[in-house]
Specification:
This protein is α+β, with helices and mostly antiparallel strands and 186 residues long. The protein contains 4 helices and 11 strands, in the order E-H-H-H-H-E-E-E-E-E-E-E-E-E-E.
Amino acid sequence: MINSIRTVRRAKGLTLEEVAQRCSPATTAQTIGRLETGTRTLSLDWMNRIAAALDVDASELVRLPQDTQLKITAHLGADGAHASTRVEEALTARPTEGMLAVRVTSSIGDYRAGDEIWCRRIEGDWSGALNRDLLVPRPAGRFIFARLLNVDGEKLHLLPLGAGQRQQVVSNPPWAAVATRLIRTL
């Protein structure tokens, strides 16, 4: 098992100090650094605390030796592409418990035909999904995929992605799934 904490932290653009402060209870940047480098043993408790701080599933913080990892070759920004100055690995796309996928069949909003949107299922506490795209079940096997604008008790105020769409209100859905990862083939 190989520790991938540093890879995930860097991909999210966070410093050791930021991750340390996000941990519950908070810890020190030095401790996070030691856990990343393996100079301190990564227990299951630490893995869960750091995963929560990074807003990922704990399984994304470790990988098996046979897992293929892509090396980051370049960084692309407003000023163009530049060679990576440090060794970095790309995040792997690995589904976790409670995830589901949506395949985009025609372009809509920010999504293109052929995209896959991976979503994490949530129940009851909708506030963490504000201003995020959600898949919400409707009666008769239908769904709505829309941006969560507001939560009013058990009512979700949703704005569908298409141009000119009107806000919809869904009362007391049994679950929803928040978009967490976009898989796009070029």
